UniProtKB/TrEMBL annotation:
UniProt-listed PROSITE patterns: HAMP (PS50885), HIS_KIN (PS50109)
Enzyme Commission code: 2.7.13.3
Xref: SMART domains: HATPase_c, HisKA
Species this protein is from: Methylocapsa polymorpha
Keyword Cell inner membrane: yes
Protein name (Swiss-Prot/TrEMBL): histidine kinase
Membrane topology: Multi-pass membrane protein
């Protein structure tokens, strides 16, 4: 069975893709944490490698020298043992070893050495002592560097006895692991503190820029001054220039719409005056209705084109705001129920937001007998549900109703007899606040319009 060349590499490639996806999932997502990781991780890794290499070679060198000295002491004891009468030499050597060399020795009866112990994997002292005993003494020996952590036991076979030597582990091995750990922890802590203080000052301007952009998207006028590194200041100045261009475009559009509105209203006023001077008849009444229809359509077109331009955001009490809408609906002969939960103080464009909710409520009242408004505010969003018990809108057509000038043919026809701009204006206002409007099935059996804007 032959495998094509691309197929042979497909499995390793998929493994690498899976590995990078897993790595991306566990790595921090925030810029602050990622920047800290980029700064600290290489420094800590480099420091660990350099310190380990340096300290390991240093410990190995010192351990070899200490093992050499300890072996030389043992070799001197063996030479003195052979040079002096044995009974006198044993007592003197035991005393000299204890007082001068700080090791305990004992002459045991001649017997086979214990079996060799398993060698530890990472024992520098075991290898160093074994090599030195073979080189300097050259006699059969037994070595235990693991049994008692603070001592080393060495047994060397002589012609008529077994020399047992017990020495402190520090006499043959220099281990400064605690110093290494303290050095690593201390320097890493200092590095983290310095990096944290540095990165906080570097990332704070980015967060301020993001907050200013978010506030501007919600229709507010944030105070923002570029700060930080050169690239961040350049982004800040670009944001300010973009905001100026958008505000200038809004001002120009508002001025143009005001001029068009003034001119068209002047012409409609002339029509009304001319009709008022004519004798009342069926024809003049039809013309009067046409003029009123033209004026209403003109106001709708201008409202859609103007959007929420020219109005600043302000903090309002949303509970009182909804209660005013309820009273306005009741004056038009409709029964509307409201419910609100959470902090009622919300920053929105009052007139524009009122037009948004009024269009949704009016659309519901045009096709239903009962309308309910349920609002809630959490830490991030203000959510308002407008429910009705009307015929609803098919799910496939719910996106179409937000398109300007679209009129449904079904029994549920928003902005009935009008311009088809009611829901389009509402959606435009919601999005100018950084939010959105969605349509779904209502618990009352009709349509639910949900307005969700960030706070």
């Amino acid at each position: 069975m032959s495998i094509s060349f691309p197929a042979a590499f497909e499995q390793p490639r998929s493994w690498w893709r899976g590995f990078w996806r897993w790595l991306a999932a566990i790595l921090p997502k925030g810029l602050y944490a990622r920047s800290a990781l980029i700064v600290i991780a290489p420094m800590v890794i480099l420091q660990c490698v350099l310190t380990y290499v340096f300290m390991e070679r240093h410990w190995q060198l010192v351990t070899n020298r200490l093992s050499t000295v300890l072996t030389q002491d043992i070799a001197a004891i063996i030479d003195l043992y052979h040079a002096e009468p044995q009974d006198m030499a044993r007592n003197a050597l035991v005393r000299i070893a204890q007082e001068r060399l700080k090791i305990d020795i004992e002459f045991l009866p001649l017997a086979p050495l214990p079996p060799a112990l398993p060698k530890p994997f990472f024992s520098i002292v075991d290898a160093a002592l074994s090599n030195e005993i073979r080189r300097q003494i050259g006699r059969p020996f037994w070595l235990d560097t693991v049994g008692r952590s603070t001592f080393i036991e060495i047994r060397i076979q002589l012609e008529d006895a077994i020399l047992r030597v017990v020495a402190y582990r520090s006499a043959a091995y220099a281990s400064n692991s605690h110093i290494f750990l303290l050095w690593m922890v201390g320097t890493s802590f200092v590095l983290i503190v310095v990096a944290t203080a540095f990165l906080r000052n570097q990332i704070k301007p980015i967060l301020l820029l993001a907050g200013a952009a978010e506030a501007f998207g919600k229709g507010r006028d944030p105070e923002f001054r570029p700060r930080g590194a050169r690239e961040v200041r350049q982004a800040g100045y670009a944001f300010i220039e973009m905001r100026r261009r958008i505000e200038r475009a809004f001002e120009q559009r508002t001025a143009m719409l005001n001029g068009v509105s003034h001119d068209l209203r002047t012409i409609l006023t002339r029509f009304k005056l001319s009709l008022a001077m004519l004798e009342e008849s069926d024809e003049t009444q039809d013309l009067q209705r046409d003029v009123e229809e033209m004026q209403r359509m003109l106001e709708a077109y201008l409202a859609f084109a103007r959007g929420a331009a020219g109005e600043s955001a302000a903090e309002i009490d949303m509970h009182d705001f909804l209660d005013d809408l309820r009273l306005a609906a009741e004056r038009r002969g409709h029964d509307v129920k409201i419910a609100f939960s959470g902090d009622p103080v919300v920053a929105v464009r009052p007139d524009a937001f009122k037009r948004c909710l009024s269009n949704l409520i009016g659309n519901a009242q045009s096709h239903a007998k009962h309308v309910s408004i349920e609002a809630s505010r959490d830490e991030r969003f203000l959510t308002i549900h407008v429910d009705d018990d009307g015929p609803g809108i098919p799910p496939a057509r719910r996106e179409d109703v937000f398109r300007p000038f679209v009129r449904l043919d079904e029994s549920r026809n928003q902005d009935l007899g009008g311009t088809g701009l009611g829901l389009a204006i509402a959606l435009d206002i919601a999005r100018s606040h950084g939010g959105d409007i969605t349509l779904s099935d209502s618990p009352l059996g009709g349509l639910r319009a949900t307005v969700r804007v960030p706070v």
